[in-house]
Amino acid sequence: MQWIDRQKLTNQVCPGTFLNLGSATAVEIAADTGFDWLLLDLEHGSGSAADLRTQLLACRGSSAAPIVRIRSVDPDTVKFVMDSGAAGVMFPYVSTVEAAKNAVRCMKYPPTGERGVAGAIRATNYGRSWPDYFSTANANTLVVVQIETPEAVEAAPEIAAIDGVDVLFVGPLDLSVNLGCPGDFSPPEFVDALKAVVDACEKHGKVPGILTKPGFERQHIDLGFRFVAIGSDSLSVVSGMQQNLETLRKSST
Q: 6-251 belongs to which homologous superfamily?
């Protein structure tokens, strides 16, 4: 298992990227690039649960911890994802304390939570490392809850206080839409919301995260975000294709 480096997560910026093409090849390329973590997207991505295990296999041997975003706080999906060998789960649209507590319950083995226990699963090397996995999983699994609404921002201090929640991760596009400034990360009310999330995390010893974009990286890091993602495999392909086409067109004129 490639868990997230907890010491680095606590003290440094941990860079990651989103992978939404459902492609194991894209995951392998990203894993070998040097990111600390990768977000395999089962919420908005093109892949399905059937594609997940090949994507997780593509991370094997790298230093990148695979985090899987699912569609909702669903115990059955969490069980499948974690048994398949994910290092953690990102839960979208967590706007209440109860939803955050449910996320933790899904992720942790008893007595802390309610995750079902199985021995011969991929996460335990099909049973060969079960005792070690079972004894360390509750401490190592990463619980990432997304803050994407004004209600979630308001509840951030209470969410951050929950034992087992590790990262409060701002979904900036959804948050900007819900704050009335779609796609604009610069309005004062949006920045104030980011500061509120960071403050809640700092107060309770949790990690603030965000999906940043070019031009906002320094601002977001300066605000205190440490679990920081930039870009995606699909955007990288689009950008690369456009750049190649523009280069060829310029060369042919």
A: Phosphoenolpyruvate-binding domains (3.20.20.60)
